[in-house]
Design goal:
The protein is an alpha+beta fold. It has three domains: about 80 residues, Beta Barrel (OB fold (Dihydrolipoamide Acetyltransferase, E2P)), CATH 2.40.50; about 120 residues, no CATH class; about 35 residues, no CATH class. The protein is about 35% helix and about 20% strand. The chain contains seven helices and eight strands; from the N terminus they run βββββααααββαβαα. The chain has a five-stranded mixed β-barrel. Strands 7-6-8 form a three-stranded antiparallel sheet. The radius of gyration is 21 Å and the shape is elongated. The N and C termini lie far apart (about 45 Å). About 0% of the residues have low confidence.
């Protein structure tokens, strides 16, 4: 066993006994950590209110080598996000973010870029100049990329031919479609006669490219945001094999 220090986001808490709780923490240094906080339910404990959901904490924990729960020995609040309590769409978006981090990632698989994106998203949610739906889409694109599921937007997900350049004329003659199993757009030749692919407008395609490249996505028009939300919902459900519980409360 070894003692480790990290900074992490509380993404789930579960009561374990009358006095203790199990806490899932998504950390910059180690990825997802699941730890037992003994005494964590007491009003006066070493953790005070640091184990509140969506708090960023500096933690100390004992890492178990046998595969069991780690032991959380110290947690101190570093940052909170008060706007989440004042904006209901932002509140739901934040809980969806926490669910994805808690359910979709593996223990001890760190992604520092994803950790930074999660915190930046939580800081932005509820801000008057940042549409909640658009900010959440940007987070999801980073999540998909970091976990190896970034949608193919420049080449056909089936034949891998480019969707621009020589094939531009063909793309204009037929509606674009997104192939869930292939993880991206399909060209005109490959989508002929196919069933189950999701139609996507050219504006939504460009919006996905902006989100992926981190350019101009804050200005996406409301109809494009709505279309992309529906597409992302279907893609996430397909990849997870189920519908996230908090997805029901996301707006467009």
């Amino acid at each position: 066993m070894s003692t480790e220090k990290a900074e992490g986001l509380i993404v789930r808490t579960t009561d374990y006994s009358e006095t203790s709780r199990i806490t899932t923490i998504w950390t910059r240094e180690f990825g997802k950590v699941r730890a037992l906080a003994k005494g964590g339910r007491r009003l006066r404990s070493n953790f005070e209110s640091a184990l509140d959901l969506l708090s960023v904490c500096s933690i100390v924990f004992v890492r178990k080598t046998s595969g069991g729960l780690d032991l959380l020995t110290e947690a101190r609040v570093v940052e909170r996000f008060p706007r989440l309590r004042q904006d209901l769409p932002a509140f739901y978006a934040a809980h969806y973010l926490a669910e994805l981090l808690g359910d979709w990632t593996e223990d001890y698989d760190p992604h520092p870029v994803l950790f930074a994106e999660a915190l930046n998203t939580l800081r932005d949610l509820g801000a008057p100049d940042v549409p909640t739906a658009t900010r959440l889409l940007r987070f999801e694109m980073v999540l998909l990329r970091e976990l190896g599921y970034a949608p193919l937007l420049e080449t056909c997900a089936n034949c891998r031919k480019p969707l621009t350049g020589e094939s531009a004329a063909a793309e204009k003659s037929a509606p674009l479609k997104f192939h869930l199993a292939g993880g991206g757009l399909v060209c005109g030749n490959c989508r002929a006669g196919r069933k189950g692919d999701i139609p996507i407008s050219e504006a939504a395609w460009q919006g996905l490219r902006q989100l992926a490249e981190d350019r101009g996505w804050r200005e996406l028009a409301a109809p494009v945001r709505s279309e992309l939300r529906q597409l992302m919902n279907q893609y996430v459900c397909h990849l997870l094999g189920r519908r996230p519980r908090t997805m029901l409360y996301l707006g467009s």
